[in-house]
Amino acid sequence: MSYSMEYNYEPQQLDYANKVVLAPMVRVGTLPMRLTALKYGADIVYSEELIALKLRKMKRVYNKQLKTVDFVDPSEKDPKPMFRTCVLDHPNVLQLGVAEAVTALEAATVVSRDVDGIDLNMGCPKHFSVHAGMGSALLCKPEVATDILSTLKRNLPNPITAKIRLRDTVAETVDLLRRIEQTGVSAIAVHARFVPERPRDPAHWDLMREIIEVGQSAINVPLIVNGDVFKHEDIAKVKQLTGASSVMIARGAISNTSIFRPEAAPLDDVIRDYLRACVTHGTGHGNAKYTLQQILRDRKPKHRNDQVTHHAKSLETLCEAWDLQDFFRDATRPNAKRDHAAAFDDAGANSGHSGAPILDRLEATGEVSVKTDAHAS
């Protein structure tokens, strides 16, 4: 793998009002999914949760072959990136899983020049997060959460946000939102479920409306509602019913990532876009296969490619199942030119992202500079 140290990106100052956002999703929210969501109209995309204790040890390197910025463990002989981004992966927000402020700042500092925002996960109810004092454990430790957020805000140029779940009462939730806002965050996302609840339990849009009505005089940052948005029409519906400024989509975006635009694209076309992004940006077979399985699960009748996807042993096999064998062969041949737009040959028509070789164009105009470090491994 060919690495150099320098690739300069100027993070954006994000406006979270009136936006439709790709939610952070474990294992799914990697670079190809974020790029696919942006192509189909997402305003902002969140990464999967990254554990700060590990992220703070990562080394930032520019992958000249893939034209990506990778964050890798320098102690590994053949490092695989914990986080990968590229010039098209914006506006993006990296979500941190962390239990205290010092580690949060150390980890966020590693990635701050390559992401537009940093988000604190205060909602994950899974045991691995809660037992370590992360995720929804922070809902019961507002002093710790606010210390983390204040520390990030005080030391980083990036906008800082938090994603929470509902507290036991409307009053408790409003109080938590107020305390979080006082740290200087730019927005707060609220998953409209209680901690014990799972996706099978309906999201509480009614409680979100009450929370927003009660807190409207004291909460001035955009509130982003998350939960049970499965069709494009649900975006306007949840905003009307809750009064939320913005909407965050998780499972609806997995089911069909074109949910961000008014007219849904055929699922097969969306999956091919996703796979092109996987090939172009060096995504491993395991992550691609897992995401496709999440896309295809619970479909009735089952998709014709359900079984071949399940049994696929390589990214090449996945591409063959979705009629992308020629694309895979051309993109992976020795010395094949990599450009970010290759995965999205009609992107300009759908989302406003240019179909030109973006990085080359930005280098030519001086908007982005790529420097080579001859001493890099």
Write a brief caption for the model.
By secondary structure, the protein is α/β, with parallel strands linked by helices. The protein has helices at 31-39, 52-55, 101-111, 127-130, 142-155, 170-181, 205-215, 232-242, 251-255, 267-280, 285-296, 306-311, 315-321, 325-332, 347-351, 358-365, and strands spanning 3-4, 6-7, 20-22, 44-51, 59-63, 68-72, 83-85, 92-97, 117-122, 160-166, 187-194, 223-226, 246-249, 370-371. The relative contact order is 0.14.
Structural notes for this entry:
By secondary structure, the chain is of the alpha/beta class. 37% of the residues lie in helices and 17% in strands. It has 16 helices and 14 strands. The model is unreliable at 345-377 (pLDDT under 50).
Biggest beta sheet attributes: 8 strands, parallel, barrel
How many runs of DSSP E, i.e. beta strands? Answer: 14
N→C terminal distance: 8 Å
Q: What portion of residues is helical?
A: 25-40%
Order of helices and strands: EEEHEHEEEEHEHHEHEHEHEHHHHHHHHE
What is the count of DSSP helices, taking H or I runs of 4+ residues?
16
Unreliable sequence segments: 345-377
List keywords for this structure.
eight-stranded parallel β-barrel, four-stranded antiparallel β-sheet, 377 residues, alpha/beta, 16 helices, disordered C terminus, globular
Question: What's the helix and strand layout?
Answer:
Blueprint: E1 3-4, E2 6-7, E3 20-22, H1 31-39, E4 44-51, H2 52-55, E5 59-63, E6 68-72, E7 83-85, E8 92-97, H3 101-111, E9 117-122, H4 127-130, H5 142-155, E10 160-166, H6 170-181, E11 187-194, H7 205-215, E12 223-226, H8 232-242, E13 246-249, H9 251-255, H10 267-280, H11 285-296, H12 306-311, H13 315-321, H14 325-332, H15 347-351, H16 358-365, E14 370-371
Parallel strand pairs: 3-4, 3-13, 4-8, 8-9, 9-10, 10-11, 11-12, 12-13
Antiparallel strand pairs: 1-5, 2-14, 5-6, 6-7
Helix pairs in contact: 1-10, 3-5, 6-7, 13-14
